[in-house]
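[AMINO ACID CHAIN]
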Amino acid sequence: MNFRKLVEKAKTSKARLFVLTMVTRRIIPFNRPHKISITKLSDHNIETFLPYRKRNFNHLRGLHACALATLAEFTGGFLLLTRLGNVK
């Protein structure tokens, strides 16, 4: 399936949103251990989720700054690429 079509269908379908989340985990292996998921997607907005799990903790059992930075980079990069139209 074409990635651009998947993104468009994910804006209206929870099943396609789940598929999009799984695809992004597969094509960005660095983010896979964090289990980042896309919860909402629209033309000008993306909502992502970073689960509260052991791999994302720091030594004080809070969310690790690098995990939060990875989430922010993923979210911003995904929105930027989809808005610029470079996703094929």
About this structure: The chain has one domain: 3-84.
